[in-house]
Specification:
Elements lengths: L1 H19 L7 E2 L2 H4 L4 H8 L7 H11 L5 E4 L5 E5 L2 H9 L5 E2 L2 H7 L12 H12 L4 H29 L3 E2 L1 H17 L10 H18 L7 H6 L4 H22 L18 H12 L5 H32 L1 H15 L9 H4 L4 H13 L6 E5 L3 E2 L5 E2 L4 E4 L1 H4 L3 H4 L37 H16 L2 E5 L21 E6 H5 L1
Parallel strand pairs: 1-2, 3-9
Antiparallel strand pairs: 2-3, 4-6, 5-11, 6-9, 7-8, 10-11
Helix pairs in contact: 8-9, 8-20, 9-14, 10-12, 12-14, 14-17, 14-20, 15-20
Protein backbone atom coordinates (compact mmCIF):
# COMPACT_ATOMS: atom_id res chain seq x y z
CA UNK A 1 0.00 0.00 0.00
CA UNK A 2 2.82 2.39 0.89
CA UNK A 3 4.56 1.63 -2.42
CA UNK A 4 1.36 2.40 -4.31
CA UNK A 5 0.95 5.70 -2.49
CA UNK A 6 4.56 6.73 -3.18
CA UNK A 7 4.23 5.80 -6.86
CA UNK A 8 1.04 7.85 -7.25
CA UNK A 9 2.65 10.79 -5.47
CA UNK A 10 5.70 10.69 -7.77
CA UNK A 11 3.49 10.51 -10.87
CA UNK A 12 1.42 13.44 -9.61
CA UNK A 13 4.52 15.55 -9.06
CA UNK A 14 5.93 14.65 -12.49
CA UNK A 15 2.65 15.50 -14.17
CA UNK A 16 2.51 18.75 -12.24
CA UNK A 17 6.05 19.73 -13.26
CA UNK A 18 5.47 18.92 -16.95
CA UNK A 19 2.06 20.57 -17.12
CA UNK A 20 3.03 23.90 -15.61
CA UNK A 21 5.84 24.26 -18.11
CA UNK A 22 3.22 25.30 -20.64
CA UNK A 23 2.53 28.52 -18.77
CA UNK A 24 4.10 31.84 -19.60
CA UNK A 25 7.56 32.23 -18.18
CA UNK A 26 7.51 34.39 -15.09
CA UNK A 27 4.00 33.48 -13.95
CA UNK A 28 4.07 32.57 -10.28
CA UNK A 29 3.39 29.00 -9.23
CA UNK A 30 1.92 28.04 -5.86
CA UNK A 31 4.92 25.96 -4.76
CA UNK A 32 4.57 22.82 -2.67
CA UNK A 33 6.99 24.09 -0.03
CA UNK A 34 4.95 27.21 0.55
CA UNK A 35 1.36 26.22 -0.04
CA UNK A 36 1.30 22.49 -0.56
CA UNK A 37 0.53 20.21 -3.48
CA UNK A 38 -2.95 18.94 -3.98
CA UNK A 39 -5.18 21.90 -4.61
CA UNK A 40 -8.53 21.15 -3.08
CA UNK A 41 -6.96 18.84 -0.50
CA UNK A 42 -4.71 21.66 0.68
CA UNK A 43 -7.51 24.22 0.71
CA UNK A 44 -9.69 21.83 2.70
CA UNK A 45 -6.95 21.42 5.28
CA UNK A 46 -6.35 25.17 5.44
CA UNK A 47 -10.03 26.02 5.76
CA UNK A 48 -10.57 23.84 8.83
CA UNK A 49 -7.70 25.53 10.62
CA UNK A 50 -8.93 28.07 13.14
CA UNK A 51 -7.07 31.00 11.62
CA UNK A 52 -8.42 30.42 8.08
CA UNK A 53 -12.01 31.61 7.95
CA UNK A 54 -12.95 31.09 4.32
CA UNK A 55 -11.69 29.71 1.05
CA UNK A 56 -11.54 33.20 -0.43
CA UNK A 57 -9.59 34.43 2.63
CA UNK A 58 -7.11 31.63 1.99
CA UNK A 59 -6.66 32.70 -1.63
CA UNK A 60 -6.52 36.38 -0.75
CA UNK A 61 -3.56 35.41 1.44
CA UNK A 62 -2.02 33.47 -1.45
CA UNK A 63 -2.54 36.37 -3.86
CA UNK A 64 -0.81 38.76 -1.49
CA UNK A 65 2.03 36.24 -1.07
CA UNK A 66 2.55 36.31 -4.85
CA UNK A 67 2.70 40.09 -4.95
CA UNK A 68 -0.72 40.35 -6.63
CA UNK A 69 0.74 38.89 -9.83
CA UNK A 70 -0.99 36.10 -11.77
CA UNK A 71 -0.20 32.67 -10.41
CA UNK A 72 -1.26 29.12 -11.07
CA UNK A 73 -2.12 26.27 -8.75
CA UNK A 74 -3.00 22.66 -9.41
CA UNK A 75 -5.35 20.18 -7.83
CA UNK A 76 -4.22 16.65 -7.12
CA UNK A 77 -6.61 15.43 -9.83
CA UNK A 78 -4.56 17.39 -12.39
CA UNK A 79 -6.94 20.34 -12.74
CA UNK A 80 -5.18 23.66 -13.20
CA UNK A 81 -6.30 27.05 -11.96
CA UNK A 82 -4.96 30.43 -13.05
CA UNK A 83 -5.58 33.26 -10.57
CA UNK A 84 -5.82 36.78 -12.01
CA UNK A 85 -6.47 40.14 -10.33
CA UNK A 86 -5.64 42.99 -12.70
CA UNK A 87 -8.69 44.83 -14.10
CA UNK A 88 -7.34 44.46 -17.66
CA UNK A 89 -7.30 40.67 -17.26
CA UNK A 90 -10.80 40.70 -15.73
CA UNK A 91 -11.99 42.81 -18.67
CA UNK A 92 -10.61 40.18 -21.05
CA UNK A 93 -12.67 37.48 -19.30
CA UNK A 94 -15.81 39.55 -18.88
CA UNK A 95 -16.07 40.86 -22.43
CA UNK A 96 -14.75 37.61 -23.94
CA UNK A 97 -15.01 38.71 -27.59
CA UNK A 98 -13.62 35.40 -28.85
CA UNK A 99 -15.85 33.14 -26.73
CA UNK A 100 -12.92 31.69 -24.80
CA UNK A 101 -14.67 31.13 -21.46
CA UNK A 102 -17.65 29.27 -20.07
CA UNK A 103 -19.06 28.48 -16.65
CA UNK A 104 -17.33 25.18 -16.19
CA UNK A 105 -18.43 21.57 -15.75
CA UNK A 106 -16.93 21.06 -12.29
CA UNK A 107 -18.86 23.98 -10.77
CA UNK A 108 -21.99 22.88 -12.63
CA UNK A 109 -21.72 19.34 -11.29
CA UNK A 110 -21.33 20.63 -7.75
CA UNK A 111 -24.08 23.24 -7.96
CA UNK A 112 -26.68 21.67 -10.27
CA UNK A 113 -28.75 20.52 -7.27
CA UNK A 114 -28.74 24.18 -6.26
CA UNK A 115 -28.89 26.38 -9.39
CA UNK A 116 -29.82 23.74 -11.96
CA UNK A 117 -29.93 25.23 -15.48
CA UNK A 118 -30.87 28.73 -14.32
CA UNK A 119 -29.09 31.88 -15.45
CA UNK A 120 -26.35 31.72 -12.81
CA UNK A 121 -24.85 28.53 -14.29
CA UNK A 122 -26.17 28.81 -17.87
CA UNK A 123 -23.95 29.30 -20.93
CA UNK A 124 -24.41 30.35 -24.53
CA UNK A 125 -27.88 30.76 -25.99
CA UNK A 126 -29.59 29.59 -22.81
CA UNK A 127 -27.87 32.36 -20.84
CA UNK A 128 -28.67 34.98 -23.50
CA UNK A 129 -32.33 33.97 -23.64
CA UNK A 130 -32.77 34.02 -19.87
CA UNK A 131 -30.99 37.35 -19.52
CA UNK A 132 -33.07 38.93 -22.28
CA UNK A 133 -36.36 37.91 -20.67
CA UNK A 134 -35.23 38.85 -17.16
CA UNK A 135 -34.14 42.30 -18.34
CA UNK A 136 -37.80 43.26 -18.72
CA UNK A 137 -38.38 42.67 -15.03
CA UNK A 138 -35.73 45.21 -14.02
CA UNK A 139 -36.95 48.06 -16.20
CA UNK A 140 -37.02 51.56 -14.77
CA UNK A 141 -40.81 51.57 -15.11
CA UNK A 142 -41.27 48.47 -12.97
CA UNK A 143 -38.75 49.73 -10.42
CA UNK A 144 -40.79 52.92 -10.08
CA UNK A 145 -44.34 51.55 -10.34
CA UNK A 146 -44.06 48.25 -8.52
CA UNK A 147 -40.83 47.36 -6.79
CA UNK A 148 -40.13 50.52 -4.83
CA UNK A 149 -43.57 50.28 -3.20
CA UNK A 150 -42.77 46.75 -2.04
CA UNK A 151 -39.35 47.80 -0.72
CA UNK A 152 -40.75 50.82 1.08
CA UNK A 153 -43.58 48.87 2.71
CA UNK A 154 -41.29 46.08 3.93
CA UNK A 155 -38.73 48.62 5.13
CA UNK A 156 -41.43 49.99 7.45
CA UNK A 157 -41.87 46.41 8.71
CA UNK A 158 -38.12 46.45 9.42
CA UNK A 159 -38.65 49.53 11.58
CA UNK A 160 -41.09 47.59 13.76
CA UNK A 161 -38.57 44.78 14.25
CA UNK A 162 -35.72 47.16 15.06
CA UNK A 163 -37.90 49.22 17.42
CA UNK A 164 -38.56 46.12 19.53
CA UNK A 165 -34.81 45.53 19.67
CA UNK A 166 -34.23 49.12 20.77
CA UNK A 167 -36.90 48.91 23.45
CA UNK A 168 -35.46 45.65 24.79
CA UNK A 169 -32.03 47.16 25.30
CA UNK A 170 -30.57 43.77 24.42
CA UNK A 171 -27.86 43.01 21.90
CA UNK A 172 -29.38 42.34 18.48
CA UNK A 173 -28.21 40.41 15.41
CA UNK A 174 -29.12 42.64 12.43
CA UNK A 175 -28.18 40.00 9.86
CA UNK A 176 -31.34 37.95 10.50
CA UNK A 177 -33.95 40.65 9.78
CA UNK A 178 -32.03 41.84 6.71
CA UNK A 179 -32.20 38.38 5.14
CA UNK A 180 -35.89 38.18 6.05
CA UNK A 181 -36.50 41.62 4.53
CA UNK A 182 -34.89 40.77 1.19
CA UNK A 183 -36.56 37.34 1.13
CA UNK A 184 -39.99 38.88 1.61
CA UNK A 185 -39.26 41.52 -1.04
CA UNK A 186 -37.98 39.20 -3.77
CA UNK A 187 -40.90 36.80 -3.30
CA UNK A 188 -43.33 39.65 -3.87
CA UNK A 189 -41.63 41.53 -6.72
CA UNK A 190 -40.55 38.41 -8.64
CA UNK A 191 -43.43 36.02 -8.00
CA UNK A 192 -46.25 38.08 -6.46
CA UNK A 193 -45.98 35.69 -3.52
CA UNK A 194 -46.77 37.13 -0.09
CA UNK A 195 -44.50 35.62 2.55
CA UNK A 196 -43.73 36.95 6.00
CA UNK A 197 -40.33 35.81 7.20
CA UNK A 198 -39.85 39.24 8.75
CA UNK A 199 -43.00 38.68 10.78
CA UNK A 200 -41.71 35.33 12.00
CA UNK A 201 -44.11 33.05 10.10
CA UNK A 202 -42.76 29.59 10.92
CA UNK A 203 -42.85 28.06 7.43
CA UNK A 204 -41.02 31.05 5.94
CA UNK A 205 -38.43 31.03 8.72
CA UNK A 206 -37.86 27.30 8.16
CA UNK A 207 -37.35 27.91 4.45
CA UNK A 208 -34.85 30.69 5.19
CA UNK A 209 -32.90 28.38 7.48
CA UNK A 210 -32.96 25.52 4.97
CA UNK A 211 -31.84 27.89 2.20
CA UNK A 212 -28.85 29.06 4.28
CA UNK A 213 -27.83 25.54 5.32
CA UNK A 214 -28.05 24.30 1.73
CA UNK A 215 -25.94 27.19 0.48
CA UNK A 216 -23.29 26.73 3.14
CA UNK A 217 -23.07 22.95 2.99
CA UNK A 218 -22.90 22.78 -0.79
CA UNK A 219 -19.80 24.96 -0.58
CA UNK A 220 -18.13 22.09 1.29
CA UNK A 221 -18.10 20.13 -1.96
CA UNK A 222 -15.51 22.49 -3.44
CA UNK A 223 -13.01 21.40 -0.80
CA UNK A 224 -14.06 17.76 -0.41
CA UNK A 225 -12.38 15.19 -2.65
CA UNK A 226 -14.71 12.35 -3.72
CA UNK A 227 -17.78 14.35 -2.68
CA UNK A 228 -19.81 12.51 -5.37
CA UNK A 229 -19.18 9.23 -3.55
CA UNK A 230 -20.17 10.75 -0.21
CA UNK A 231 -23.30 12.26 -1.77
CA UNK A 232 -24.42 9.05 -3.43
CA UNK A 233 -24.24 7.03 -0.23
CA UNK A 234 -25.02 9.91 2.16
CA UNK A 235 -21.85 9.24 4.13
CA UNK A 236 -21.30 12.69 5.61
CA UNK A 237 -23.43 15.00 7.72
CA UNK A 238 -22.87 17.72 5.12
CA UNK A 239 -24.38 15.63 2.32
CA UNK A 240 -27.28 14.51 4.52
CA UNK A 241 -28.04 18.15 5.27
CA UNK A 242 -27.92 18.97 1.55
CA UNK A 243 -30.50 16.28 0.82
CA UNK A 244 -32.79 17.35 3.66
CA UNK A 245 -32.69 21.07 2.95
CA UNK A 246 -33.07 20.59 -0.81
CA UNK A 247 -36.44 18.98 -0.11
CA UNK A 248 -37.58 21.91 2.05
CA UNK A 249 -36.42 24.50 -0.48
CA UNK A 250 -38.02 22.71 -3.43
CA UNK A 251 -41.31 22.41 -1.53
CA UNK A 252 -41.44 26.20 -1.15
CA UNK A 253 -40.57 26.74 -4.82
CA UNK A 254 -43.23 24.33 -6.05
CA UNK A 255 -45.82 26.15 -3.95
CA UNK A 256 -44.91 29.27 -5.90
CA UNK A 257 -45.18 27.40 -9.20
CA UNK A 258 -48.55 25.88 -8.28
CA UNK A 259 -50.09 29.34 -8.46
CA UNK A 260 -49.22 29.48 -12.17
CA UNK A 261 -51.14 26.33 -13.12
CA UNK A 262 -54.88 25.68 -13.37
CA UNK A 263 -56.66 22.55 -12.15
CA UNK A 264 -55.90 20.77 -15.41
CA UNK A 265 -52.20 21.21 -14.81
CA UNK A 266 -51.87 23.76 -17.61
CA UNK A 267 -50.45 27.27 -17.46
CA UNK A 268 -53.24 29.57 -16.32
CA UNK A 269 -54.61 32.17 -18.75
CA UNK A 270 -54.81 34.56 -15.81
CA UNK A 271 -51.06 35.11 -16.15
CA UNK A 272 -51.52 37.27 -19.23
CA UNK A 273 -49.98 40.66 -18.48
CA UNK A 274 -48.38 39.39 -15.27
CA UNK A 275 -45.21 41.40 -14.58
CA UNK A 276 -43.49 38.90 -12.30
CA UNK A 277 -40.41 37.13 -13.60
CA UNK A 278 -42.22 33.82 -14.02
CA UNK A 279 -45.10 35.57 -15.73
CA UNK A 280 -42.73 37.26 -18.18
CA UNK A 281 -41.09 33.92 -18.98
CA UNK A 282 -44.39 32.18 -19.59
CA UNK A 283 -45.69 35.05 -21.73
CA UNK A 284 -42.52 34.95 -23.84
CA UNK A 285 -42.82 31.19 -24.17
CA UNK A 286 -46.40 31.51 -25.34
CA UNK A 287 -45.45 34.06 -28.00
CA UNK A 288 -42.62 31.87 -29.27
CA UNK A 289 -44.49 28.58 -29.02
CA UNK A 290 -42.12 27.24 -26.38
CA UNK A 291 -43.11 25.04 -23.45
CA UNK A 292 -40.89 25.34 -20.41
CA UNK A 293 -40.66 22.29 -18.19
CA UNK A 294 -41.58 22.58 -14.54
CA UNK A 295 -37.99 21.67 -13.72
CA UNK A 296 -36.74 24.65 -15.73
CA UNK A 297 -39.21 26.94 -13.98
CA UNK A 298 -38.01 25.56 -10.64
CA UNK A 299 -34.45 26.52 -11.61
CA UNK A 300 -35.65 29.96 -12.67
CA UNK A 301 -37.36 30.58 -9.33
CA UNK A 302 -34.39 29.28 -7.34
CA UNK A 303 -31.85 31.44 -9.17
CA UNK A 304 -34.03 34.51 -8.69
CA UNK A 305 -34.48 33.84 -4.98
CA UNK A 306 -30.75 33.30 -4.46
CA UNK A 307 -29.67 36.40 -6.36
CA UNK A 308 -32.50 38.59 -5.11
CA UNK A 309 -32.08 37.76 -1.45
CA UNK A 310 -28.38 37.49 -0.72
CA UNK A 311 -26.67 40.49 -2.33
CA UNK A 312 -28.72 43.19 -0.60
CA UNK A 313 -28.95 41.38 2.74
CA UNK A 314 -25.19 40.81 2.80
CA UNK A 315 -24.51 44.43 1.84
CA UNK A 316 -26.90 45.84 4.48
CA UNK A 317 -25.24 43.74 7.18
CA UNK A 318 -21.84 45.05 6.08
CA UNK A 319 -23.19 48.62 6.06
CA UNK A 320 -24.15 48.36 9.73
CA UNK A 321 -20.77 46.77 10.51
CA UNK A 322 -18.83 49.70 9.05
CA UNK A 323 -21.25 52.38 10.22
CA UNK A 324 -20.77 51.18 13.80
CA UNK A 325 -17.04 51.86 13.36
CA UNK A 326 -17.75 55.28 11.80
CA UNK A 327 -20.57 56.95 13.74
CA UNK A 328 -20.03 60.24 11.92
CA UNK A 329 -21.41 58.57 8.79
CA UNK A 330 -24.46 57.44 10.74
CA UNK A 331 -25.22 61.10 11.40
CA UNK A 332 -24.69 62.01 7.74
CA UNK A 333 -27.02 59.22 6.64
CA UNK A 334 -29.58 60.22 9.27
CA UNK A 335 -29.54 63.82 8.00
CA UNK A 336 -30.09 62.61 4.44
CA UNK A 337 -32.95 60.36 5.60
CA UNK A 338 -34.59 63.30 7.37
CA UNK A 339 -34.43 65.33 4.16
CA UNK A 340 -35.75 62.49 1.99
CA UNK A 341 -38.68 61.73 4.33
CA UNK A 342 -39.44 65.44 4.73
CA UNK A 343 -40.86 64.92 8.21
CA UNK A 344 -43.16 61.98 7.39
CA UNK A 345 -41.21 58.91 8.49
CA UNK A 346 -44.33 56.75 8.71
CA UNK A 347 -44.78 56.75 4.93
CA UNK A 348 -43.11 54.13 2.72
CA UNK A 349 -40.38 55.57 0.52
CA UNK A 350 -40.78 55.31 -3.26
CA UNK A 351 -38.50 55.34 -6.27
CA UNK A 352 -38.98 59.06 -6.81
CA UNK A 353 -38.20 59.79 -3.15
CA UNK A 354 -34.70 58.31 -3.34
CA UNK A 355 -33.66 58.46 -7.00
CA UNK A 356 -31.00 61.15 -7.31
CA UNK A 357 -31.69 62.32 -3.75
CA UNK A 358 -29.69 59.82 -1.68
CA UNK A 359 -25.97 60.08 -2.55
CA UNK A 360 -24.88 59.31 1.04
CA UNK A 361 -26.93 56.09 1.22
CA UNK A 362 -25.66 55.05 -2.20
CA UNK A 363 -22.04 55.74 -1.31
CA UNK A 364 -22.30 53.77 1.94
CA UNK A 365 -23.90 50.84 0.11
CA UNK A 366 -21.28 50.77 -2.67
CA UNK A 367 -18.34 51.18 -0.31
CA UNK A 368 -19.52 48.37 1.97
CA UNK A 369 -19.86 46.07 -1.04
CA UNK A 370 -16.39 47.09 -2.21
CA UNK A 371 -14.77 45.69 0.91
CA UNK A 372 -17.27 42.88 1.49
CA UNK A 373 -18.44 41.83 -2.00
CA UNK A 374 -21.50 39.57 -1.96
CA UNK A 375 -19.72 37.32 -4.49
CA UNK A 376 -16.11 37.26 -3.21
CA UNK A 377 -14.72 35.06 -6.00
CA UNK A 378 -15.50 34.10 -9.59
CA UNK A 379 -14.41 31.36 -11.94
CA UNK A 380 -14.62 30.54 -15.65
CA UNK A 381 -13.32 27.63 -17.70
CA UNK A 382 -11.17 28.16 -20.74
CA UNK A 383 -12.22 26.49 -24.02
CA UNK A 384 -9.61 28.18 -26.22
CA UNK A 385 -6.00 29.17 -25.67
CA UNK A 386 -5.82 32.79 -24.55
CA UNK A 387 -3.09 35.24 -23.59
CA UNK A 388 -4.10 37.90 -21.07
CA UNK A 389 -2.86 41.52 -21.05
CA UNK A 390 -0.68 40.64 -18.03
CA UNK A 391 1.11 38.01 -20.13
CA UNK A 392 -0.45 35.03 -18.39
CA UNK A 393 -1.77 32.21 -20.56
CA UNK A 394 -4.63 29.79 -20.11
CA UNK A 395 -5.27 26.63 -22.10
CA UNK A 396 -8.42 24.64 -22.90
CA UNK A 397 -9.58 22.87 -19.76
CA UNK A 398 -7.96 25.32 -17.36
CA UNK A 399 -10.01 27.23 -14.83
CA UNK A 400 -9.47 30.98 -14.48
CA UNK A 401 -10.29 32.60 -11.14
CA UNK A 402 -10.50 36.20 -9.95
CA UNK A 403 -11.34 37.58 -6.54
CA UNK A 404 -13.31 40.84 -6.15
CA UNK A 405 -12.29 40.77 -2.48
CA UNK A 406 -8.76 41.43 -3.77
CA UNK A 407 -9.37 43.53 -6.90
CA UNK A 408 -11.63 45.89 -4.96
CA UNK A 409 -8.75 46.59 -2.54
CA UNK A 410 -5.79 47.04 -4.90
CA UNK A 411 -3.83 50.13 -3.84
CA UNK A 412 -2.68 50.60 -7.44
CA UNK A 413 -6.22 51.65 -8.34
CA UNK A 414 -7.91 52.60 -5.07
CA UNK A 415 -5.06 54.48 -3.41
CA UNK A 416 -3.07 53.94 -0.25
CA UNK A 417 -6.29 53.87 1.79
CA UNK A 418 -7.70 50.99 -0.28
CA UNK A 419 -8.21 48.84 2.81
CA UNK A 420 -10.10 51.61 4.59
CA UNK A 421 -13.88 52.05 4.51
CA UNK A 422 -14.49 55.54 3.15
CA UNK A 423 -17.79 56.33 1.38
CA UNK A 424 -16.48 59.75 0.35
CA UNK A 425 -14.59 58.05 -2.49
CA UNK A 426 -18.00 57.72 -4.20
CA UNK A 427 -19.10 61.34 -3.69
CA UNK A 428 -18.45 64.63 -5.48
CA UNK A 429 -17.95 62.99 -8.86
CA UNK A 430 -15.19 60.65 -7.69
CA UNK A 431 -17.16 57.55 -8.66
CA UNK A 432 -16.28 58.16 -12.32
CA UNK A 433 -12.70 57.19 -11.45
CA UNK A 434 -13.71 53.58 -10.86
CA UNK A 435 -14.79 51.49 -13.83
CA UNK A 436 -16.68 48.20 -13.69
CA UNK A 437 -13.50 46.12 -14.01
CA UNK A 438 -11.95 47.74 -10.94
CA UNK A 439 -15.17 47.50 -8.96
CA UNK A 440 -16.46 43.99 -9.60
CA UNK A 441 -18.98 43.64 -6.76
CA UNK A 442 -21.72 43.37 -9.41
CA UNK A 443 -19.56 41.55 -11.97
CA UNK A 444 -18.72 43.41 -15.19
CA UNK A 445 -19.16 43.57 -18.94
CA UNK A 446 -22.01 41.60 -20.52
CA UNK A 447 -22.27 39.64 -17.25
CA UNK A 448 -22.92 42.74 -15.14
CA UNK A 449 -25.54 41.76 -12.54
CA UNK A 450 -28.91 42.34 -14.17
CA UNK A 451 -30.47 42.92 -10.78
CA UNK A 452 -28.07 45.71 -9.74
CA UNK A 453 -30.74 48.47 -10.03
CA UNK A 454 -33.05 46.38 -7.82
CA UNK A 455 -30.35 45.76 -5.20
CA UNK A 456 -29.32 49.41 -5.11
CA UNK A 457 -32.89 50.69 -4.76
CA UNK A 458 -33.80 48.07 -2.15
CA UNK A 459 -30.66 48.77 -0.13
CA UNK A 460 -31.01 52.57 -0.20
CA UNK A 461 -34.66 52.46 0.85
CA UNK A 462 -33.81 50.15 3.78
CA UNK A 463 -30.89 52.30 4.96
CA UNK A 464 -32.78 55.59 4.73
CA UNK A 465 -35.82 54.15 6.48
CA UNK A 466 -33.80 52.70 9.36
CA UNK A 467 -31.61 55.75 9.89
CA UNK A 468 -34.64 58.00 9.99
CA UNK A 469 -35.40 56.22 13.29
CA UNK A 470 -32.27 54.55 14.70
CA UNK A 471 -28.55 54.64 15.37
CA UNK A 472 -26.35 51.63 16.14
CA UNK A 473 -23.41 50.73 18.35
CA UNK A 474 -21.46 47.48 18.12
CA UNK A 475 -21.35 45.08 21.04
CA UNK A 476 -18.01 45.60 22.77
CA UNK A 477 -15.37 43.12 21.64
CA UNK A 478 -17.55 41.64 18.89
CA UNK A 479 -15.94 40.79 15.54
CA UNK A 480 -18.07 39.42 12.68
CA UNK A 481 -16.86 36.08 11.36
CA UNK A 482 -17.37 35.30 7.68
CA UNK A 483 -18.11 31.67 6.84
CA UNK A 484 -17.56 29.43 3.84
CA UNK A 485 -20.52 30.06 1.59
CA UNK A 486 -21.29 30.93 -2.02
CA UNK A 487 -21.86 34.52 -0.92
CA UNK A 488 -20.37 36.82 1.71
CA UNK A 489 -22.19 35.83 4.86
CA UNK A 490 -21.41 35.96 8.58
CA UNK A 491 -21.86 32.97 10.84
CA UNK A 492 -24.92 32.51 13.09
CA UNK A 493 -23.76 35.38 15.32
CA UNK A 494 -24.16 37.69 12.35
CA UNK A 495 -23.59 41.31 13.35
CA UNK A 496 -24.24 41.97 17.04
CA UNK A 497 -25.27 45.55 17.83
CA UNK A 498 -27.33 47.69 20.16
CA UNK A 499 -30.17 49.60 18.53
CA UNK A 500 -30.96 53.13 19.74
CA UNK A 501 -34.00 55.16 18.77
CA UNK A 502 -33.00 58.65 17.70
CA UNK A 503 -35.19 60.39 20.28
CA UNK A 504 -33.64 58.23 23.03
CA UNK A 505 -30.13 59.28 21.97
CA UNK A 506 -31.17 62.92 21.89
CA UNK A 507 -32.51 62.58 25.44
Amino acid sequence: MMLLFVTLAVLAVLYYKVRIGRYTKGIEIMHTSQWGLGGTWVVANEVVRKEAVTMFAYFAKAIKHHGYRPFQWSAICGKHFLVLNHPDDIKCISKDPNSCFIKGPIAYEILKIYFGDGIIMANGESWKSQRHIMSHMFSRRLLRERMSTVFGTHAQDLVNVFRKAAQSGMVFNVQVPFYCYTFDCINMVAFNCEVNALGGVQSDVEFQHAFDVLQNRITDRFVTPLWQFFAKFQLTESERQISKTTGIVNEHIHKILDSYYNEAGEISDALEGDQTITGLYLEAAKLEGITYSRKFLRDLVFNTLAAGRDTTASALTSCIQYLCDHPEWQDKLGAEAKEVFNGNTQEALTFDDVEGRSPIAEAIFLESLRLNPAAPFNERYCVKEVTFPSGAKAYPGDAVQWYPIVTNRLKEFWGEDAEEWDPSRWLDGKAKNYDEFMYTAFHSGPHMCIGKPLAMLEGKIALLTLFAHFRFTKMEGFKPRVINSLTWQNDANGMQVYVHECDQMAG
